[in-house]
Amino acid sequence: MWPDLRLCDLMKIGQPIIQAPMAGAATPALAAAVSNAGGLGSLGSAEMNVDQLRAATAMLREATDRPFNLNFFIQDAPRTEPAVLEHTRQRLAPWYSAAGLGAPPETLPALGPSFDDARLALLLEIRPAVVSFHFGLPAPDAVLALKAAGIVVVSTATNVAEARALERAGVDAVIAQGYEAGGHRGSHQPTAPGDGVGTMALIPQVADAVGVPVIAAGGIGDGRGIAAAFALGASGVQMGTAFLSCPEAGTDAPRRARLRCATDSDTMLTDAFSGRAARAMRSRYAQVMEAHREPLPAFLQMYALSDPLVAAGPEDEVSFHLYGQAASLTREVPAADLMQALTREAFATFARVSKSVP
Ligand SMILES: Cc1cc2nc3c(=O)[nH]c(=O)nc-3n(C[C@H](O)[C@H](O)[C@H](O)COP(=O)(O)O)c2cc1C
Fold this sequence. Notes:
Layout: H1 6-11, E1 17-19, H2 28-36, E2 41-44, H3 50-63, E3 68-73, H4 82-98, H5 117-126, E4 130-134, H6 140-148, E5 152-157, H7 160-168, E6 173-177, E7 183-184, H8 199-209, E8 214-217, H9 223-231, E9 236-239, H10 253-260, E10 267-270, E11 278-281, H11 284-291, H12 303-312, H13 335-354
Parallel strand pairs: 1-9, 2-3, 3-4, 4-5, 5-6, 6-8, 8-9
Antiparallel strand pairs: 7-11, 10-11
Helix pairs in contact: 2-3, 9-13
Bound molecules: flavin mononucleotide.
Flavin mononucleotide binds near residues 134, 238 and 241.
């Protein structure tokens, strides 16, 4: 039996393992496989409009009748100062020129808020078991409405203050995301790439600070990491990178190839692609941009400037492969097999460690 069943009871799942909602990489097939294996499958909905979200959820419901999680970013409609856009265009001009792309774009797309009334209405209609948020929480009445509909609401904290704020705002569980994590840091305010607390230090401090179950995320690559998270006070884990090499994941071929030879030191924090700090594979572009930090266009609008460079490559120069520090532990096995292996390894670790008790 798992040493702490609070998350399993809350989410009505058999294994306290959440497959992280990875926008673009977490497909309905991956989420369904994890849910069917007793964990909680998740879809990252950040890049989907309401119709796409409705279609993806229908596919997921076709493939599983178990609980699953839909995930959203919390971000106001981004607005970039014209001077910041112009300055960034000048910085990027040599990269554009080297890639044979002409001049960087002069305008940025007008984007709305990441979570809005239409998405809330859809959630209240389709009622997933769990909704998770990244970068904070929506307005209090939205949280209340989701909870009143019987939906479990969780969000990410990257430090103790954020965890306390989430608990005060009524979340049912807190995802504590350490610095090792692949993907965007879930900080409630945009932070510099260097800011971050590691999972080992973060989990026990968050567990001491809040009364709701804590879900550990960041650098957990196998059952040893899961057992460690429980030892630190977590009631479950959220793992992203570990699922990227599953055949059901939407991971593209270049990133799959990178993961095959990943090391502990492959990645860095950078906001030079999206406008917000994310852990991704090191590339020369990211290193040059981080060496001389300047204000960048707002989160998500920055993609309009970086996407053409990423598409033009070459790989080692400019690539945006999101993965975490435990990437070398990933396995190319179906998600159901991975879930079985993770559970087996976690219990083997509990047994091994408990033998050393005097
Ligand atoms: C490719 C990728 C995409 C991600 N996208 C999201 C996302 O859309 N929403 C979210 O809440 N977290 C996202 N994350 C972060 C995860 O929720 C989680 O914090 C992280 O994967 C944990 O660290 P690990 O990758 O070392 O397991 C993403 C992570 C990765 C690796």
